[in-house]
Amino acid sequence: MISIPVLTLKRLPQYLELLYGFEQEGQDTISATRLAELTGVHMTQVRKDISLTGVVGTPKVGHKIKDLIESIESCLNWKDLSSAFLVGVGRLGSSLLGYSELKRKGLNIVAGFDSDPSLAGTLVDGVIVHSMDKFANLCQRMKVHIGILTVPADQAQSTAELMVASGILAIWNFTPTLLQVDENIIVEDVDMSASLAVLSRRLSEKYDHDSKQISKIDNYKNKTDQEKQ
Amino acid sequence: MISIPVLTLKRLPQYLELLYGFEQEGQDTISATRLAELTGVHMTQVRKDISLTGVVGTPKVGHKIKDLIESIESCLNWKDLSSAFLVGVGRLGSSLLGYSELKRKGLNIVAGFDSDPSLAGTLVDGVIVHSMDKFANLCQRMKVHIGILTVPADQAQSTAELMVASGILAIWNFTPTLLQVDENIIVEDVDMSASLAVLSRRLSEKYDHDSKQISKIDNYKNKTDQEKQ
DNA sequence: GTGCATTCGATATTAAAATATCGAAATACT
DNA sequence: AGTATTTCGATATTTTAATATCGAATGCAC
Ligand SMILES: NC(=O)c1ccc[n+]([C@@H]2O[C@H](COP(=O)([O-])OP(=O)(O)OC[C@H]3O[C@@H](n4cnc5c(N)ncnc54)[C@H](O)[C@@H]3O)[C@@H](O)[C@H]2O)c1
Ligand SMILES: NC(=O)c1ccc[n+]([C@@H]2O[C@H](COP(=O)([O-])OP(=O)(O)OC[C@H]3O[C@@H](n4cnc5c(N)ncnc54)[C@H](O)[C@@H]3O)[C@@H](O)[C@H]2O)c1
Fold it and tell me: Are the Cβ atoms of B200 and A6 closer than 8 angstroms?
């Protein structure tokens, strides 16, 4: 199975999102050109990305939307559900338990785990929450290989180690902690800090000569808004 | 103000996280070499990243941790708080309202907004929630320029447009929707789908010849675990 | 003080990603 | 039917990012 570049993998869900929209609108085909316009990704890049999923289009027409969705979904292994355990049923954790969209993306959270004894045995959005001592055993018995990590930052490393020792092969890490685990464990960080860093800096780069700039922009915007009327 | 590459910006918070740890342990200096070991980023890359923030180190010693933190934080504009509004106080939205870590990263959510009338006037984790009709007015009066978007996907585009019309200059977008807004508005996506796509595919690439492979790995792991004892 | 090891930071090389170019295939139009 | 036009997909070029190399600076051991 060929290795697809990370950046391509990160673009594929974007295309999918648009494709679902078109499908609902009853559209039948779509061109790479159009996808490029909508995503801001270069036309040739879209073509390369699409071709990596293994689908072929027809000249002048483009791609059959149904085929393209099918191809991207199976490329990402989103066609059938993988089971996952979530550890840390706090604010973020329980919001994920209720996030039904994940099922449409191949992820089925079959149980939550938390060190807080008052949560053990409860249901959160229909998902059972267990105490931590059940983790290793259930993990092996149910052959679950994906772990979602939403514990406090200072508990992240030890929890990750427990996961790995219990048979977890891939960790979806929502904590800001940099996990140190065996190198053949797949760790994928959902890095909100990283994203916030980019937003923060880009805003500074654009306007922070000393925030007077922002007022200028405000004035400019008001002006053009008036002109538009 | 120079433009720092996205990938560098995304690595800076990683370094910071480690640096906070060292600072607490009472350490005084750190070398790029050590940061490279811990993050998996190449040593020369770490040096480049660090030098982009404007700090200089001393040979043989490395960098003063205090200076480095200071330098990265001010590079990301995390030293002083920017005000933000959050729209969509649902599962994810309210989990963000309670996420105090954001304040340490320069972001101060000063109010939430929601179309659900039963939420108007309530406090969520100490943050006031307003009805949507107050958004434009408060945005201008309080000179808030950052908007956090956590409404359902089908409401994302229209809400983004409201934000832009109200003076928002940067949108932190947690929805899977690809926003179409004026090009000088900064949009930063927290793309969980993208992250899940990478995790999913990498897992397939590694083990999906037909999932027998995973059992093999299990056996292998058990074996080596025994050997370790 | 002198050599030695370490680390910085600048410059060069390599690798990877994004963009441009071009011919061929398919449809629509004359 | 023939021609123009759109779009695909393969190949080349350019740009950007990652890695390697090297000299200089600093502190430490002797
Ligand atoms: N809240 C957010 O919006 C948000 C956003 C981004 C990242 N995060 C990160 O997600 C993580 C969780 O944040 P949160 O706001 O949901 O915190 P939280 O305190 O609301 O929830 C943490 C949960 O983990 C449980 N827990 C603590 N130690 C545990 C352990 N050793 N084993 C198992 N369970 C344990 C707690 O009982 C609690 O239920 C943090 O690392 C945070 O940095 C949160
Ligand atoms: N829940 C998660 O863990 C999670 C994870 C990743 C992404 N997301 C995305 O975040 C968004 C919110 O997800 P959620 O699970 O919190 O949903 P939710 O239904 O729990 O919350 C949505 C909130 O938005 C409000 N709302 C709806 N329309 C609105 C409008 N036009 N203006 C203002 N407020 C409006 C609703 O009243 C509700 O309070 C979705 O786009 C989802 O795809 C959620």
Answer: no
